[in-house]
Amino acid sequence: MEFPVINLEKLNGEERASTMAKIKDACENWGFFELLDHGIEPEFLDTVERMTKGHYRKCMEQRFKEMVAGKGLENVQTEIKDLDWESTFYLRHLPESNIAQVPDLDDEYRKVMKEFAAKLEKLAEELLDLLCENLGLEKGYLKKAFYGSRGPTFGTKVSNYPPCPKPDLIKGLRAHTDAGGIILLFQDDKVSGLQLLKDGQWIDVPPMRHSIVINLGDQLEVITNGKYKSVEHRVVAQTDGTRMSIASFYNPGSDALIYPAPALVEKEAEQKKLVYPKFVFEDYMKLYAGLKFQAKEPRFEAMKAVESNVNLGPIATA
């Protein structure tokens, strides 16, 4: 089982069809894939990494050590189930940016992260159109499905996973599926730790220099009526090396109405396949907040129970 690595550059040549087939297979069978030659310059990624690691050392590391000492975590004897061994902060980009308000960031870092967000937003929208093409949906369908009244929600979780003395007892990040749409991750190329669950086994997502790891969230599972799946993943803490992880979440707008694409339900209907619920994204997120580290199926069932009786006109695609 080879983790899917996709060279986006190949979409421009005679290998387009085989590259699209690789993307399709990754979406249907893995829920994850790793992108190379994705159009974001390697030198720029090096700058993002250098500044993120510098910021962690200067502003976050000490605070994390104090938290660990305060909770006595170096000496735990039993598994810790209500906490993750990670140091994080969040940036919001859309519908409006909060980068100017986030404390402790120097101006150059703010500027770089703003530019990074713009590049990732463009990449996310390109990927959504590739997914549309593979699904037989019209171009722009997924972007429109995410749009709501104010456009998508887009934000970044900047994390560092410091060395952990008891990785068997404390997870870097406990197992979960992502609630949102499409996730774009720029991760450390030296310190590993990210794993996904496939066929009952935990598989490493290989650290690769200058790659962007893509994974699909619960909303894409719903819109594709289960054709594509959001996959459970976790971060295993390491005993040495601090792992950097910059995960950007391109999600539906809070008032976007999420439901299976009619074109995909019709195809499934002959086979009497399960149809997923219809709901407003924000309602799903409220539910997810309390259930993040539990299975996603009960979340979908709960949303069916409160299914909005909203008129489902076709989504107009500009």
Automatic annotation (TrEMBL):
Pfam families: 2OG-FeII_Oxy, DIOX_N. It comes from the Eukaryota. InterPro entries: DIOX_N (IPR026992), IPNS-like_FE2OG_OXY (IPR044861), IPNS-like_sf (IPR027443), Oxoglu/Fe-dep_dioxygenase_dom (IPR005123), Plant_2OG-oxidoreductases (IPR050295). Residues 152-252 form the Fe2OG dioxygenase domain. Keywords: Iron, Metal-binding, Oxidoreductase, Vitamin C. PROSITE patterns: FE2OG_OXY. Belongs to the iron/ascorbate-dependent oxidoreductase family. This is Fe2OG dioxygenase domain-containing protein. It comes from Hevea brasiliensis.
